[in-house]
Write a sequence for this structure.
């Protein structure tokens, strides 16, 4: 019963993360991995993420920054390929925790920069930062479903306004997660049991998305930035300890 309740909470968090505070979905990834077999949990959470992506894209599609997306996309597929290669040769647990530690370091650097100077956008707007974020997003989503915090840190460094943040993230992750479906299907991860379980959790994703849409409206830009950075730290810790 406890495991079922945890899955419901995880599904709610997926929806809320997609429409309000990005990065929280990594906590859902950790919950799924703790109550389901690792391979099965990867496929189940992917389908829920796509569901949340659809809601977010529909509501925030007009706010997406296409110029920013074009800078990120070229390195995503190489990142996915690099992640797949590393998974073939590196222990999964060690790699996931390493990514968590790296995210904590990046979050600490971002917070330090914001403390020293409110304007961190010049660093975030460089081409190298965009290419590095695209590569890291592809790599981390393939190895640990942890691209959310990477994207969050990049967009916060860009000084992206709240709705543009949500619209850009929605389209980016919708595309990335769709790219992952053939990989998962090819590995035979979409069993009948996984599809049935996912179908039962979809309403909770939609409920979480609804709550996120209402919550995002009430957050000021300053509070929004603080919330997504805090979610990044929590998500990174979840990756380290899960």
């Amino acid at each position: 019963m406890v495991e079922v309740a945890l899955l419901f909470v995880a599904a709610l968090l997926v929806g809320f993360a997609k429409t309000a505070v990005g990065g929280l979905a990594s906590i859902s990834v950790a919950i799924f991995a703790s109550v389901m077999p690792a391979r099965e949990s990867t496929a189940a959470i992917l389908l829920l993420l796509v569901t949340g992506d659809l809601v977010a894209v529909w509501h925030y599609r007009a706010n997406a920054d296409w110029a920013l997306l074009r800078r990120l996309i070229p390195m995503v597929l190489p990142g996915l390929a690099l992640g797949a290669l590393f998974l073939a040769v590196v222990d999964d647990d060690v790699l996931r925790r390493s990514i968590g530690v790296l995210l904590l370091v990046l979050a600490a650097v971002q917070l330090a920069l914001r403390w020293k100077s409110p304007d961190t956008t010049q660093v975030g707007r460089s081409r190298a930062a965009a290419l590095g974020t695209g590569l890291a997003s592809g790599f981390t989503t393939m190895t640990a479903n942890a691209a959310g915090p990477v994207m969050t840190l990049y967009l916060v460094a860009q000084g992206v306004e709240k709705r543009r943040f949500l619209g850009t993230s929605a389209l980016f992750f919708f595309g990335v997660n769709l790219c992952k479906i053939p990989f998962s299907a090819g590995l035979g991860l979409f069993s009948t049991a996984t599809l049935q379980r996912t179908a039962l959790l979809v309403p909770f994703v939609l409920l979480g998305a609804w709550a996120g849409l209402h919550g995002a409206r009430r957050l000021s830009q300053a509070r929004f930035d603080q919330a997504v950075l805090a979610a990044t730290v929590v998500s990174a810790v979840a990756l380290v300890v899960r």
